[in-house]
Design brief:
alpha/beta, 5-stranded mixed β-sheet
């Protein structure tokens, strides 16, 4: 399956979003409320893997895990995925009997490093802060009991105006047989359902859910991405493996996450025109299973799509390119993906000739954004390439691929004459440096061109163009850089 522009448009229409958080990239703002069962963790990982979802905060409730232990495990997961900038808070305890699966839920992150981050002590205070400071309405994804949300709107009724929709994995409290999340705190569910908030109910029938079984889990284990590796790690316990073999687990809470990226898989009905409560009626189970795996498999490529400003689309037809590049167009796109293709094409047009270091700069910026999970215009850059060609050509590629520009004042060029740059996104800082053996290879190619064709002659530029096309094709952005994370305040 491939997610189309039509899919995203449907999603935006359904969720009635206000203007995007930035002028250049549209992201769907959400807060997540979770009791941190294993299926909650899986659902959160899928949401974090999407470039179209902006997770603004996560709060924990009393259910599968205690709020405190749930927050601790959640911080470990966020640290593993490099998402430490997302605030986490513990909700209130219900003083109810713990479910029999609590021990397994609370041990799910035991194979992950301990996070140095600390949770906020008050979920309601964090939610109120996030909602009140947001420029747009925010969607509330509730994967556990509704305790936090009910307390928020009871104590701060105006908070309802800042919530776009509630996506709830559970049943209405009016049902004869209520779901576990609803039964855990029925009073809170009743308050939310009577509040006037628009609630999308995800309470699929058994036949609408596919098994998270051995076959499905093995496919995840074979997927070479960070989110897939995380899902493997949190299911390593003997108890979890046994339940996988017994086909106990279903795609429960993950239904919301898959729907967030593929809304065409579901149909909702509103039984009472006077109540804004919508029930899941149809769910395409087979396509949902394929979509789940696709989200994990493509997460390493999940850069937000670069949308044209004046073009209708970026050209990919070989006939639209110069003869020496035309035959390689499909091969380059297949090797490095459509997003790198767009950025390198724009870089070459800006740079006014096809040169290796400008292409390296574009690859470097794309790679940094992948690692930092950053959209265009969200990264500040300090380039060490200086202002002397050919190394300074790196700066053109960096500007195009990150959106950091001299005009916006978000890129600085240091006169160090080195093929490296510092990228800053929130509290995260990473230095990418061209590997020395790659730099020497490029330098040797340039020196050979000078020796054979003279310096800055037409023949020299023809040879540089040929070399640059080959470097573009053969050099993978995941292999050619040294990647070093820096602590806050640490110099590169």
């Amino acid at each position: 399956m491939k997610k189309s522009t039509k899919t995203l448009l449907i999603f935006l229409i359904i969720f009635l979003f206000l203007p995007a958080a930035s002028a250049h990239e549209q992201k769907i703002p959400v807060v997540i409320d979770t009791d941190m069962a294993l299926d909650d963790a899986r659902a959160i990982v899928l949401l974090l893997a999407s470039p179209h979802i902006h997770v603004k905060a996560i709060v924990t409730s009393d259910g599968a895990s205690s709020p405190e232990k749930g927050a601790e495990n959640l911080l470990r997961i966020l640290a593993f995925l490099g998402k430490n900038d997302i605030p986490v808070a513990s909700g209130i305890s219900l003083n109810e009997t713990a479910p029999k699966w609590r021990q397994m839920s609370e041990s799910l992150a035991e194979n992950l490093p301990v996070s140095q981050q600390k949770p906020h002590p008050d979920a309601q205070a964090l939610l109120l802060k996030i909602l009140s400071e947001s420029e747009e309405k925010t969607n509330y994804i509730c994967l556990g009991p509704m305790s936090n949300l009910a307390g928020l709107i009871s104590d701060h009724p105006s908070a309802k105006e800042r919530i776009s929709n509630v996506l709830y994995y559970g049943s209405s409290p009016q049902e004869k047989k209520v779901s576990w999340n609803t039964a855990r705190d029925t009073e809170s569910a009743q308050k939310v359902f009577a509040s006037g908030l628009t609630v999308y109910l995800f309470d699929p029938k058994e036949e609408q859910l596919f098994d998270f079984d051995t076959d499905f889990f093995e496919k995840i284990q074979k997927t070479d991405t960070l989110p897939a590796k995380l899902l493997s790690l949190i299911h390593e316990s003997e108890a979890a493996r046994k339940l996988i073999q017994e086909k106990h687990f279903k795609c429960w809470d993950e239904t919301i996450s898959v729907y967030a990226l593929y809304p065409e898989l579901a149909d909702f009905v509103q039984p009472d025109a006077n109540l804004p409560i919508r029930h899941l009626e149809k769910w395409d189970t087979d396509k949902a299973r394929a979509a789940y795996l696709e989200i994990l498999a493509q997460s390493h490529e999940f850069l937000p799509e670069r949308m044209p400003v004046v073009l209708k689309h970026f050209p990919t037809n070989p006939r639209e390119f110069q003869d020496d590049l035309a035959l390689l167009v499909p091969e380059i796109i297949t090797a490095h993906g459509p997003e790198e293709w767009k950025h390198v094409v724009l870089t070459n047009e800006l740079h006014r000739h096809l040169g290796t270091y400008s292409i390296i700069g574009a690859k470097m910026g794309i790679r940094a954004r992948e690692i930092l999970s950053a959209s265009l215009d969200e990264v500040r850059v300090e380039s060490s390439a200086g202002s002397k060609p050919p190394l300074s050509c790196l700066n053109d590629g960096l500007q195009v691929s990150t959106g950091a520009s001299l005009g916006r004042g978000t890129i600085a060029v240091l006169e160090k004459n080195m093929p490296e740059a510092l990228f800053i996104h929130g509290d995260k800082r990473i230095v990418l440096k061209l590997k020395e053996e790659i730099r020497q290879q490029i330098q040797a190619d340039i020196q050979a061109a000078i020796k054979n064709f003279g310096n800055l002659t037409p023949a020299y530029f023809d040879q540089i163009r040929k070399l640059s096309i080959q470097h573009w094709l053969k050099m993978s952005r995941t292999d050619i850089f040294e990647e070093t994370f820096l602590n806050k305040g640490e110099e590169k």
